[in-house]
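Posting this for the archive.
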Amino acid sequence: MRTILPVSTALALMASASAFAEPSFDVSKLYIGGSVSHNVVDSPFGGSSVDAPGVSVFAGYEIPNDIAQVETAIEVGYTQTDDFFNGSNSDISGLWVAGVAQKDLPEISPNLFGIARFGLDIGDDDGLLLGAGAGLHLTPVIDARAEYINKDASSVYQASFIVKF
């Protein structure tokens, strides 16, 4: 029962995203990426927090919008962390889906952009996720991002590389 609501919500988000997309699949709007992260879980009882490194892989697809100078996309990915404590079952892993908005910042640098995300984690840290960060267009097909993402039970500091098709 616990996973039915998040899975159905994720499927609904993907279906609504496809309703806004063009009728045919355009490979030039597709991208893939990978991230390394530092994950922090705050102790609910006060005191210190615990942390663990992690990795993510994801794919994104740009979707049209009516906001000038803002690119939007839907991303779907999988995240895995190391154990937060000694012993088993103290990691965070699972699928997630997020809407992403990106705005180039030519006033500062022609290669700089800001990024914001809102989504749903369907894994061990299930619930809403919200993030913000910045990135650089390294080449026309490769981007680098640095983001802070707040999840239900953890905070994530991550660096990502994106490859566009």
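Residues 4-164 form a domain with the Porin fold (CATH 2.40.160.20). The CA atoms of residues 36 and 151 lie 16 Å apart.
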